[in-house]
Amino acid sequence: MTSNPVDAKFRELVDESLRFYQRFKSEAVPHSVPILFFGDLDAYQETKGLKVVTVGLNPSNREFPSGSTFERFPLMDGWEGEEPFDYAKYRESLCRYFHTCPCDWFDDYESVLCGVGASYFPRASPNIAVHTDFCTPLATAKVWSKLGDDTKDAFKEKGFPMWKDLIVYLKPDLVLASIGFNEHLRKLSPPVLWKIVFPNIAKPYKLRLVRKCFNGHPSVIVHGRQIHGQPFAGLTDSEKESVGKFIRKKYEQLTAKRRS
């Protein structure tokens, strides 16, 4: 697998994540690497149908397991000792993530993506999704809930603008964000603008939807509940797939109105 050439905007995004890493290195998993995104960016950019981005808070420390730090990103092993930074190798390493040994945390999102008609895995769907993180590209040694308030605030202050820049670059049609709404997502739009809907499943489950333009590109953002960091928690796999189908239907209704 060889990824496409690196463009100038990608370099800018990577440089910002590297500066973030240097500033907050003491909070990161030792000798890790910032993760700008997870997934096959080439396949995502070549998607002719629905471009989907999922959202978390920050990469898990499980992405860099003790004793085998770069198991999931083998191309980046020893990157800190290399000069100059190899942007092409970094891009390819991120693109290979779901081709290598992805963390099982993504299974919850994958079930919803299946209903939407997308997937992280190129062989599973023609609509390829990539994953992003809202607050920081760093895998922190401590889980998010254990970080100090000052650290969280600093991450959110610097990380949120970085995430928006990444979304402008990715130009997604649909954004699935199963993170804290009041603490994080309400930054995107006032709560009154979010539409609340309930999928037709056995248990009550609330979704929030809003249309948002990023540098002129329209996206539909969908928020679903998370519990203890698990996206769309409290639902079975089949219920997640049903929720995904409901989201796709709502997306098509919203975009049809926009076109009319």
Element order, helices and strands?
Answer: HHEHHEHEEEEEEH
Give helix % range.
25-40%
Q: In whole angstroms, how far apart are the ends?
A: 41 Å
Computed Rg: 18 Å
Mean model confidence by pLDDT = 93
Quick one: biggest sheet? 6 strands, mixed
Major β-sheet strand ordering: 2-1-3-6-5-4
Q: What does the overall shape look like?
A: globular
Provide a count of the helices.
6
- Give the total of beta strands: 8
Low-confidence parts, pLDDT < 50 over ≥5 residues?
none
Oligomer: single chain
Task: Give the tally of structural domains.
Answer: 1
SS strand fraction: 5-15%
Describe the structure.
There is one protein chain. With 260 residues, this protein is α/β, with parallel strands linked by helices. It has one domain (8-259). It contains six helices and eight strands, in the order ααβααβαββββββα. It has helices at 8-23, 41-45, 87-95, 107-116, 149-170, 237-259; strands at residues 52-56, 129-133, 174-177, 195-197, 207-214, 217-223, 226-227, 230-231. Strands 2-1-3-6-5-4 form a six-stranded mixed sheet. A two-stranded antiparallel ribbon has the order 7-8. The longest helix is centred in the last third of the chain and has 23 residues, at 237-259. It is globular. The model has no long low-confidence stretch (mean pLDDT 93).
